[in-house]
Amino acid sequence: MTARVFVDGAAGTTGLEIRERLTGRAGIDLITIDDARRKDAAARAEALNDADFVILCLPDDAAREAVTLIRNDRTRVIDASSAHRVADGWTYGFAELEPDGADRIAGAARVSNPGCYPTGFLALVRPLVRGGLLPADWPVMVNAVSGYSGGGKAMVAEYQAGGAPAFRAYALGLAHKHAPEMTVHAGLTHAPIFAPAVVDTYRGMVVEVPLHLHALPGAPTLAAVRDVLAAAYTGQPLVTVAYDDAATVAIEEHAGTDAMTLRIHGNAATGQARLIATLDNLGKGAGGAAVQNLNLMAGLDPVAGLSL
Ligand SMILES: NC(=O)C1=CN([C@@H]2O[C@H](COP(=O)(O)OP(=O)(O)OC[C@H]3O[C@@H](n4cnc5c(N)ncnc54)[C@H](OP(=O)(O)O)[C@@H]3O)[C@@H](O)[C@H]2O)C=CC1
Ligand SMILES: CC(=O)N[C@@H](CCC(=O)OP(=O)(O)O)C(=O)O
């Protein structure tokens, strides 16, 4: 069976990449609309209702509107925006996060892609909360840097015009749109302190959770934390827990791919750890997750169209 797929927002940073990945793929028939009509509600409604699967690569308000334009029970949705990540009736589209994640996505009509930063954060933290190493009410912090494509067309234009700062910390008021999904899907009772920054490189991200292991119940070792994470992702082609002696970690590590690496470093003597995820904001953080979810929902090869 051929799956008819419409990417709404295909002229944007995320949408363009997803459309390119799906173009010419066996088993997928892409529905497109003329560039001049790409924001025309009637043209979009027709495409949305023609499709078996739609991938929304839109600002939050436009994503909510797109869902209201679907007037049939057949069209299934993957939303890359942050509009539905903690919404009732939506399945969180992070296949590796829970043991039944892939099965739930495969059967869902409405799937919300995770945010880019939450993908790294949740990959590091959720197995520790689930496994009881990290109490649900622990005060967690997350420091992160993203390539500027994370800010969409407007930020790409700003950086490519020249003059934007090499490193810019933001979300200083601790009310970033990703905090709710980090809290809910990690199973935490308080939002983490989330300190993001954008740097002068196009794509890629480093997401870091520092932990005082000595203060945790049972004072788990670095090795114990690493083993819990490794067990959580065994057999997952996109997520690797590194057992390496890396002295540094580069934002470019997975730029242009859909892979994510998790590292557990630190000082065993002081009981302090740095849990670090590297991924591409446009890969596992957006387009890769959308293609992975489409594969699962359409019953296609789970790694088709993905770059490991
Ligand atoms: N960039 C990233 O790393 C990630 C982005 N996302 C999410 O994906 C979504 C898209 O982000 P991104 O690609 O970066 O953003 P962009 O700004 O690059 O692209 C958004 C696109 O949506 C179009 N658009 C806006 N309103 C409408 C509308 N009413 N109807 C049709 N099209 C519309 C815009 O049109 P126009 O070209 O005219 O501006 C633009 O082409 C966001 O919700 C974002 O949170 C998710 C994960 C990572
Ligand atoms: C650098 C930058 O600005 N990044 C964006 C996050 C990327 C995004 O908007 O998309 P998702 O929410 O879908 O991940 C931000 O912090 O708002």
From TrEMBL:
Domain Semialdehyde dehydrogenase NAD-binding, chain residue ranges per copy: 4-105
Sorted UniProt keywords: Amino-acid biosynthesis, Arginine biosynthesis, Cytoplasm, NADP, Oxidoreductase
Signal peptide boundaries: none
Descriptive protein name: N-acetyl-gamma-glutamyl-phosphate reductase
Domain of life: Bacteria
Organism classification: Bacteria, Pseudomonadati, Pseudomonadota, Alphaproteobacteria, Sphingomonadales
Homology family: Belongs to the NAGSA dehydrogenase family. Type 2 subfamily.
EC number: 1.2.1.38
Role, per record: Catalyzes the NADPH-dependent reduction of N-acetyl-5-glutamyl phosphate to yield N-acetyl-L-glutamate 5-semialdehyde.
Record bears the keyword NAD: no
Organism: Sphingomonas mollis
